[in-house]
Amino acid sequence: MHLRDILAFSTLALAASVSARSITQPPKDNSPIVSATVDNGGQGSELRTENFENRCGPKYGKCGKGKCCSTAGYCGSSKAHCRSPDCQIDFGHCDGLSSPEGPSTEKIRRPKVGTVPYGPNVIRSCAVPGTVALTFDDGPREYTEELLDLLERYNAKATFFITGNNGGKGPIDDFDMPWSTLIRRMRLEGHQIASHTWSHQDLSKISHDQRKDQLLKNEMALRNILGSFPTYMRPPYSSCLPESGCLDDLGKLGYHVVLYDLDTSDYAHDSPEAIQVSKDIFNRALDPWKVTDKSWLVIAHDVHEQTVHNLTEHMLRKIRDHGYHAVTVGQCLNDPEEYWYREDSHGPLHLDKESKESRKKDNKSKSSTFKAITLDGTCGVNVTCVGSAFGPCCSSAGYCGNTTAHCSTGCQPDFGRCFWPGSDKVLPNGTTIGIPAKPKDTAAGWLPIDKDKDAAKKPAKSEAGSLLKTGTSVTTLALLTSAAVLLS
């Protein structure tokens, strides 16, 4: 046999061996293999095989039970697959499909009070000259605590558009996480809390029911933390197209829809070098104007390191040097603080780690503590002044009112709102803004006048009617409350 015949025979034997192996050995996974003949750009056709078992999305459909559909269209259960808003909510499980604890806020009354327009109108600028409303979207995250420290050093106020469960951070009302503590601190230090939806979905691209779900879930989570939820919101990606019905939906839910007139573009410049672009944007906006003629509504994001470590202090210095005041959105619109939130008697919900772990193990009912709005002007354990007719502040003696003695030194921030003396700021147009007190005693050594001190020892009179005496039975209180509702 010639050498070429031997080589030819060997080649045929090898080909037969490979062919036999490909027939007898299945693919390593048991996923179906789909074959298709596809055009090869005018060069004929080729046979292509693709594994569709783990694909998902509009072309492939939903993932199997418990699996998440990633933004690239693959099924899985990792954080990268399941974190919102990247996870595709229509084609699998996503962390944004979870729901906060407690009852829905859907039945809470939503009166439209004040002069600031509600949806479908859109707010794009401030109304009070000399103010700058710094707003921060998407948090809280790991940099938010440092941002709060920075704002405190400059005695500046800001508005936080809170997202409930985005970027894999977990729900904000998970009390094992730091987010609820940061949100309570925001409120105590006089910042405004607003909604940025539950999981940062594009509201123009989802259904009416999904939009409603995004707002109600975030309300529930904030209610669990604060006992109330915001009347102000900003749509994720600033996307809320009229033709989608989005603006009408937000209006029906009683929201002020807030955009901006100064975009720092910080999300696109999150490096020590690139953040200078955002600084330049801010400088170019402020420099040509007189403080008496202009105000600004600024958008930034506290989820970006350079925004917190670099850009924000630059903006605060610029605001100070130009003579502006850093205020909340509500303040820059001259909207009273009592219109910024809606109270919900089903919160706040306090869960300690021990009760939460026992609930996981034993599947027992939730351990919760609610703060009810006072009916008789007293305040303290589980009873708050906020939302009552007696005044929003709880004095050291445990009575509600709105005098300096109720709201300043000795005021109990856990059971009402607190202020410190001399905290009012007078803006260039003459508007006075009251600044809520810091958690630390910033008024050390200050004493209220005797008249106010005596007033704080007893409940303030309610403008709604005669004072209910302490010690009245629960049954009598309930009857009197029901009668007042019927007569009103």
TrEMBL record:
GO terms for molecular function: chitin binding; hydrolase activity, acting on carbon-nitrogen (but not peptide) bonds; metal ion binding. Residues 130-327 form the NodB homology domain. It comes from Aspergillus cristatus. The keyword Protease does not apply. This is Chitin deacetylase. GO terms for biological process: carbohydrate metabolic process. SMART domains: ChtBD1 (SM00270). InterPro entries: Chitin-bd_1, Endochitinase-like_sf, Glyco_hydro/deAcase_b/a-brl, NODB_dom. Its cofactor is Co(2+). Residues 53-96, 376-420 form the Chitin-binding type-1 domain. PANTHER family: CHITIN DEACETYLASE (PTHR46471:SF4). Residues 22-40 have a biased composition (Polar residues).
